[in-house]
Amino acid sequence: MKLKYEKRFEKLTTTRKERRTEFNKSNIIAAAKKQFDKNGIAQTTVDDIAKEADYSKATLYAYFKSKEEIYHHIVFESMKELKNRIQNITVSTENFEHCFYSLCNTLADFHDENPLYFDSIVGKISVKESDFEEQPVLLEIYNIGEEINSELVSLLQRAEKDGILQSGMEPVTTVMSLWASLYGIILLASRKEGYMEEKLGITKETYMKAAYQMLYKSVIKE
C-alpha cells in the first residue's frame, strides 16, 4: 500500500514539474517573440529576453541553450500554425483552382503576421543527426516542413489524377518551385509596395493577384 502511494506521489510530482517546465518555457518564448518583434532578432540579447520574461539568465539557460534555440522554437510554433491553415484548406476545398488561390493568400497572410519568421519557410534547414541531437527542435521543424510539403504534394497528385495539371509535372519538384515562386512574389510585393503604387500605378494586391494567376496558369492544362 505504501509503495503504491509513493508511486502515485512520484507521478503527481513529475506532472507538476512538467507543467512548470512548459509554463516557464512558454513564458520565455513569448518574451523572446515580443523582443524580436520590437527590436529585431539580431539586436535582441539573452539579457533582454530574461528581463522581459522576468527571469534570471540562469533560469533562462536552464531551459534553452541559446537565443538561437529560442528562435527555433518560435519558428516551429509558426510552422505548426501554417500547417494547420494549409490542412484546413486542402481538406475543406475540393476545387483545385480555389484551393490554389486560397493557399497563396494564406501564405501572404502568414508573411504579414510573421515577417521575421517568413524566411524560415524556404530558408536553410539542418538535416544532420548531430544538429538534431543538440537541438531536438530542429528535428521538429524538419518534420513539420516535410508534413507541409507532403500535404501539398498530395494536392498536386489529386489534381494530376483529375487531369488538371500539365502532363509530365513531377509533384515534389513542382511543390519546391511553387514555394520559391510564392516566396519571391510575396517578398517583392512587400518590399516594392511604394514603387508599385507611385511608379506603376498598381496596388500590392493587384500585383499579387496577377502574379498568382500567372503561377496558376504555369501548372494547369490550357
From TrEMBL:
Recorded hits in PANTHER family, A to Z, give: HTH-TYPE TRANSCRIPTIONAL REPRESSOR SCO4008, TRANSCRIPTIONAL REPRESSOR
UniProt keyword annotations, A-Z? DNA-binding
Keyword DNA-binding annotated: yes
Q: Which PROSITE patterns match?
A: HTH_TETR_2
Leader sequence range is none
Q: Which Gene3D superfamilies does the protein's record reference?
A: Homeodomain-like (1.10.10.60), Tetracycline Repressor, domain 2 (1.10.357.10)
- Gene Ontology molecular-function annotations: DNA binding
SUPFAM superfamilies from the UniProt entry: Homeodomain-like (SSF46689)
| Gene Ontology process terms (BP) | regulation of DNA-templated transcription
Q: Looking at the record's lineage, which domain of life comes first?
A: Bacteria
Cite the HTH tetR-type domain residue spans from the record.
22-82
Protein name per Swiss-Prot or TrEMBL: TetR/AcrR family transcriptional regulator
Write down the DNA-binding region ranges.
Answer: 45-64
The answer to keyword 4Fe-4S applying to this record is no
Organism per entry: Anaerosacchariphilus polymeriproducens
